[in-house]
Amino acid sequence: MSPALGFASLLDGLKAAAEDTRLRLLALLGEAELTVSELTEILGQSQPRISRHLKLLAEAGLVERYREASWAFYRRAGEGDGAVLGEALARLLDAGDPVLARDRERLSTVRAARAARAQEYFRKHAREWDEIRKLHVAEAAVEAAIVEALADVRIDSFLDLGTGTGRMLELFGPKIGRGLGIDLDPEMLAMARANLARAGLKNCAVRQGEIYNLALGRDAFDVVIVHQVLHYLDDGARAIREAARVLRPGGRLLVVDFAPHDLEFLREEHAHRRLGFAEETVSQWMRAAGLEVVSHRALAPEKGKSGKLTVSLWLGRDPRMLLAGGKREVA
Known about the structure:
The chain is an alpha/beta fold and 331 residues long. It contains 12 helices and 12 strands. The protein has 2 domains: 87 residues, Arc Repressor Mutant, subunit A (Orthogonal Bundle); 206 residues, Rossmann fold. A 7-stranded mixed β-sheet has the order 6-5-4-7-8-10-9, sandwiched between helices. Strands 1-3-2 form a 3-stranded antiparallel β-sheet. Strand 7, helix 10 and strand 8 form a beta-alpha-beta unit. Helix 3 packs across helix 6, helix 6 crosses helix 9 and helix 10 crosses helix 12. The longest helix has 36 residues. The chain is globular. 34% of the residues are buried. The C terminus is likely disordered.
């Protein structure tokens, strides 16, 4: 049962939604994150007009706006009174309505163009990614170990730092309440959006952001994952502290990266800042960030294979407990 809304919130929301273009925008933004130019293409209206409607919806809390370089992405609100009303209105809309059906057809065209651009970017970089993949244990084995590490955790909210192609969101998306990926590279984010759309994961989104300074509140996520990211960073300890900051009481931080190695070409040709991490290095960073180190696991390449890289997984836990009434204490 949906929570009740206050009179003022409900009235403001209904006023904002009670216009044909704005109602169509709400329906579209429940399907995907879209830019003003994409919405202009779908609805066949001028950019100033679309921007004005989006401003009214955002002021009423029905949609959210996120900056990404020179672009801005819009999505139906995911939290608060606006999210409750937006979801209720979406349920009331007839998905087979001819107007909405035409909008979805145009949305499919926009998504196809996105996917084509993402595929071109992937094609240009596939060789270097494949070169690194061949150096360590099979990706399927790494992903199985990741899933196993978090098998006993209920995940309502999931954060993937350095999301890249969005693979971790794809892996966990069907099992979680909501997922968010953060990355600094707009082209990688475009690829992630295309992958999430292809997988039909409406509960997952990506944002441009800085791993050292997340625009996210404390105690926001049940699980944070940092998958093959630390070796690109100058200050891994700082990234771990910021990841720990947004964990809820009892939440888990999973770090996946390489064990120490001597493949110097990865630094020279692929911008790796660190050639892997000792078990104690990341464990100490977790403890310094206030986390308990639950486990460490090393996945070495199979014997007889040419790979030289061992993949390590560190699982940390926020030691706080959430008690009845919302009070917290250390476990």
